[in-house]
Amino acid sequence: MADDEVFAKLPYDRPPTVHAMCEWIHTALSRGAVRLPFVVVVGQEVAGTTSYWYPDPVRRQVEIGSTWLGRAWWGAGINREAKRLLLEHAFTELACEKVMFRTDPENIRSQQALERLGAVRDGLVRRDWPRRDGTWRDSVYYSVLRNEWAGP
User: Fold this and answer.
1) Cα–Cα distance between 64 and 53 in angstroms, integer?
2) How many CB atoms lie within 10 A of CB 30?
3) Residue 85 is part of which domain span?
C-alpha cells in the first residue's frame, strides 16, 4: 500500500507488517474523542487513510488530517475526492463553520493540493509537531470557511 516516501514527513513510521498495520488502526480507532479515521477505498483496494481530528462543537470546527495514499493513487484525484467528501459532510452534517488542515512546510504537493481544493493558507505555526528523530517541525495551516465552500 504505502512506501517509505509516503511516511518520510510523518511523525510515525510506516507499519512494516500487516500485524503492525492492525495495531496502527486499533490505536487510531481508540482515540474516539479526538480522532475519527476513515479508510480510502478505490475499487476493491485500500488506497490509504484520512481522518477528522479535534472536533470542537463550541467553535464548530474540525481538522482533516493524517491523510496518506499509496504511490499508485498519487495524482489520480483520490485525495481531492476524499477531502471533498469530508468537507461536504463537515459543513452539511456536522454544521461546522471552519475545517482546518495542517501540513509540513516542505510538503509543497500537499499545499498545492489544498489550494486547488479552495483552502486558504492561514499561516505558519512554529514547532508544531514532533518528529520521529526528536526534532520538531513547523506546520502550515490552511482552512476553508463555511461561506467559502462551494460544495460538490
Assistant:
1) 6
2) 9
3) 4-148
pTM for the structure as a whole: 0.82
Three cell numbers written together for 100 = 482546518
- CA separation for the pair 74, 97 (Å, rounded): 29
38, β-bridge pairs: 50
Q: What is the CATH number of the domain that holds 17?
A: 3.40.630.30
Long-range contacts of 48-53 (CB under 8 A, 24+ apart): 48/1, 48/2, 48/73, 48/78, 50/82, 50/83, 50/86, 52/86, 52/90
* Helix or strand holding residue 143 (H, E): strand 136-145
Summarize pLDDT for 27-71 with one digit per residue, the tens: 766 766 688 888 898 998 888 889 999 999 999 999 999 888 888
Strands 45-56 and 120-130: unpaired
How does residue 6 score in pLDDT terms, banded at 50, 70 and 90?
low
Per-residue pLDDT tens digits for 109-145: 889 999 999 999 999 999 998 887 888 999 999 999 9
Work out the angle at residue 41's Cα, subtended by the Cα atoms of residues 39 and 46, and round it to the nearest 5 degrees: 80
Task: Report how many domains make up the chain.
Answer: 1
